[in-house]
Sequence to fold (225 residues):
Amino acid sequence: MCRRSAMILVFAFMSMHVDGQSVQNQLGPVSDTQSWDEVDVFTRLEPKLDVTWIARSRLSEQLSNPVITGFESDWRIEVIKNLAVTPSFEYFLFRSNSGQLEHGEDPILELTPSWAHQRISLSDRNRFCGRFGTDGIGPSWDYRNRARIDYRLGPSRWNVSAFAWDEAFYYSKYAGWTRNRVAIGARKMMGERVAGNLYFQWESNQIGEPAHISTIALLMEVRIR
Fold:
């Protein structure tokens, strides 16, 4: 009798373990490590108007790759000193949880006040984004607020600075602040027209998977004129 009871308990435990793994596989990984790569090409059309063409890609250790491939156009207008307005449009491709290729579009309006003194620069980027696409994306909207600090390192001839930011996301779909990104990194000017940015980012999601994403990111900036 005792042997039979013990066998029943073993089978029950194994069934719970398998079911738990099955549910986890359906929900997706809890954490992930990703690589984000981006190229920004700047063109100055007018003294107070810059256009940026952006291409980006995100690769994952746990999810189907590429996670996201995106293309964006930003039109930055300096309204007054230390205040810029940037209308943008982004088109992106992404993989759903099933691995199927989907797509989305984001019209964006950005408002960014900034302040600089000696070695320190501060900015507060506010982005209002529409969300449209397949696989349940939109129509909806989100608001993103990113506070950033830059600090120039060493003498000015080094052309090196360190930076950090904290970005919070409000999604209308969930009616709450459900995502946060914190990053720290460095920027190096390589001549007059090229700069490289390397940073580490930690992302936390209250809704959706993965719940936690660690990212190593490389951003290259190229100015045409």
Remarks:
- The chain has one domain: 34-223.
- Residues 6-25 have pLDDT under 50 and may be disordered.
- The CA atoms of residues 51 and 75 lie 5 Å apart.
- Helices lie at 2-27.
